[in-house]
Design goal:
This protein is mostly beta strands and 457 residues long. Helix content is 10%, strand content 34%. Bound molecules: 2-acetamido-2-deoxy-beta-D-glucopyranose (6 copies). One of its GO terms (cellular component) is membrane. It is a single-pass type I membrane protein.
Length: 457
Amino acid sequence: MASVYLLIILCFIAVVADSAATSTHILLNCGASSNSSDMDGREWASDTSHALSSPSTSASNADHQDPSVQTVPYMTARTSKSAFIYTFRAAPGRAFVRLYFYPSDYDHGTLTASDALFSVTAGPYTLLDNFNASVTAQASATAHITREFALSIPSAGVLSLTFSPSRPGASYAFVNGIEVVSVPELFGSGQFNSPVLLNSARPTQYVVDANTAFETVARLNVGGSSLSPGADSGGLYRSWVDDSPYIFGAAVGVSYAKDPNMTIRYPTTVPGYVAPPEVYSTARSMGPNAAINLNYNLTWIVPVDAGFYYVIRLHFCEIQFAVTGLNKRVFDVFIDNQTAVRDLDVISMSGGAGIPYYTDFVVAISRGGEGEEELWVALHPNVVTRPEYYDAMLNGMEVFKLNDSAGNLAGPNPTVRAEKPGSVGPVWVGLSSSGDSMGRGLGVVGGLLCMLVLSWL
Ligand SMILES: *[C@@H]1O[C@H](CO)[C@@H](O)[C@H](O)[C@H]1NC(C)=O
Ligand SMILES: *[C@@H]1O[C@H](CO)[C@@H](O)[C@H](O)[C@H]1NC(C)=O
Ligand SMILES: *[C@@H]1O[C@H](CO)[C@@H](O)[C@H](O)[C@H]1NC(C)=O
Ligand SMILES: *[C@@H]1O[C@H](CO)[C@@H](O)[C@H](O)[C@H]1NC(C)=O
Ligand SMILES: *[C@@H]1O[C@H](CO)[C@@H](O)[C@H](O)[C@H]1NC(C)=O
Ligand SMILES: *[C@@H]1O[C@H](CO)[C@@H](O)[C@H](O)[C@H]1NC(C)=O
């Protein structure tokens, strides 16, 4: 009898200790019968555990392996024609929840890729709705899809994810992998300032509170190469991608790495988890010719869904010995055609060369309805203070979509644009515009880039 009590007490202690953990990292390989490691050596646990609710699900195997698709976690999936729920114990506070999808035929054609249509919810939040993974992958010209959300885990320390087929019996729901990783509050907590809402001529502070969930739309290592999750800082396992496909037209400026004897030094206002040193060690500037720079904007275009607020985080760090003092390189930042910053002197804001600085803005993309829209982020030299260089630069950019007042984060499925046979990935059409010495091109981005952002490899 005494030993039973002891066992109960031990179990109780174990559960309490688990829920009181301060950070969580779960990697679940859905549909797998045993734990296995991916190519980065990360171990993914099988989902044959208490985490899964419904008995009517199947552990399914993909019929084909696309060359770009890793075996773990993509070649197995949890599938069902009725709703199923994963329940996780996770540390209270903000966590990234990443969902991994490989839209393939499963179980020898029993389930075809195009029949998957489902929603994913977490408490009051709708993460995906009528999600058609195969058309989403087609539109982004990738074989697999990762979606990253940031949710607040309540104090009870439980996270539930519900996968529901949109047409029960006819369509099915599936998921290949689930990752949950704790992250400090990213916006406006404690010593850090809240983002600035660009509200025509009246910018105001915008608080992203713990009740608001958000989804990563883009995370760019500007002027550098894509970084895999293992290269990220703070144990957050984020993917950073090359920014060049997002640049408007032919005016791509110049990308460069830090001068060899420059070191990246994080100030107390920029904790290391904000972005890894690799992000601050490369940048893109407009170029060496002041006359050309004065004639154009260095512009990134990110495809977004209308009807949501977006947070844009810009990462800056001067990493060239030519720009170590004040009033060397000063520029304006425009977001969604609104002035976000006038006279930005990175050295002045960061405190010196090699010191990272970041700043957050919020814009509402309304455009009167649903559907795909373009978010423009543009840089232009500011000449008012007569700086030494008429130039502008950027090291990194992140774009996050905030849930709407109904707790929704889902947008419509993308439309697949007609592509020329044999063409792969984004298509760029050069159009010369009159009265512009740069002969800027018009980038056809649209839905093609929609998911490119989170699919590395
Ligand atoms: C599989 O991974 C889970 C979670 O990391 C762990 O608790 C479990 O012990 C592992 N199982 C085996 C057989 O290694
Ligand atoms: C997903 O989209 C594709 C392409 O538009 C379509 O053929 C397919 O029927 C859709 N699937 C469902 C279940 O609606
Ligand atoms: C770094 O190298 C540059 C030349 O590339 C030189 O001007 C500068 O003095 C060096 N700085 C340090 C701290 O070594
Ligand atoms: C740069 O962008 C701003 C904001 O959209 C616009 O007002 C300005 O005319 C643009 N400048 C050039 C040279 O394209
Ligand atoms: C921003 O300005 C560009 C031209 O400078 C234009 O093509 C684009 O539609 C504008 N976007 C918005 C939201 O007004
Ligand atoms: C996001 O959804 C939650 C839950 O419905 C709500 O409390 C919160 O206010 C929403 N956030 C925004 C920015 O609308």
